[in-house]
Fold these 3 entries.
Entry 1:
Amino acid sequence: MELSSLEDRLNRDNRRMIDRDDDRGLTFVIRDGAGHAVGVAAGYSWAGTSELTLMWID
């Protein structure tokens, strides 16, 4: 079983168990004066919590 498939099943079961389906992806980008990305933070929020899964700073 692929990791993404397992993650989808776990998320679906968690949504059902606590009756919350308010999850969404989050992305924040920091840009310089010319509009080029110089930093990114990404993750997701769900059930009143959030998780940072990726951060990049040039």
Entry 2:
Amino acid sequence: MLSNLGEDKSIYLQISEMIEDEILRDIIKEEEQVPSTTELSKFYKINPATAGKGINLLVDKGIIYKKRGIGMFVQAGAKEQIMEARKASFKETYLKKIISEAKLIGITKEDLKKLIDETSEV
């Protein structure tokens, strides 16, 4: 099942992100069933409504869908959709700040590439 919950953000967001992580890692594959709100609420000792809110967030994004009477399943194409959304978020959250700081302190694009290469070798 999913990893432990932290206190850095809302529980329902963590539930949603952990399911996305499991989809990205192929732990839960497209067209496979995801844990139910009951399973999530029992495992994490949280309110079922909180678990449901995390699940519904994924439904709203088109990542998972409901099979009536059976449960929630990963939508075909969900992995690619999650990867694209996370790449866009990565660019906005990290890269723009890194590039801005690099320019401020005189790091060129070439220097930045070199630093990335050096860091990834560690």
Entry 3:
Amino acid sequence: MNSPLDPKALRQVFGQFCTGVTVVCATDAQGRRYGITVNSFSSLSLDPPLALFALIRDSETLKVIKAAGAFSINILADSQQDISNRLAKKGGPEKMDGVVTRPGVTGAPIVEGSIGHMDCTLHNSYDGGDHVILVGQIKQAAVGEPLPPLLYFRSGYRTVVD
């Protein structure tokens, strides 16, 4: 059944909710790094430790995550807008060129300079319309630099003003 709502109007309503910006990264069987910008991230459970996010069905990174069974969720600092922009574009592993990472405990790339990260194994996935909802079991997590977060609101980046 198709929604009677105008997608442009609905996108505008969704845009009224301020989100942090994360990038989700994974490594394929050949060791190539993939990444994608995600603002649909949410904590889910402390026991067991779970987090979730959603990816569009045709995402190249989604295929890599499902095959690898592991990924990282990296919370970006306001100084990392360039990484968000780079990974928001369609493409393959070339998007990660110039993004400094180190391997996490699962082997997934952890973005250096992020204000926090979670290294996860794929716990489950669920149908989410034109997206797939992915739930990760957090195997390792750490707080990074004490910098302001990168925020997204009304179709643009924002910063925290105290």
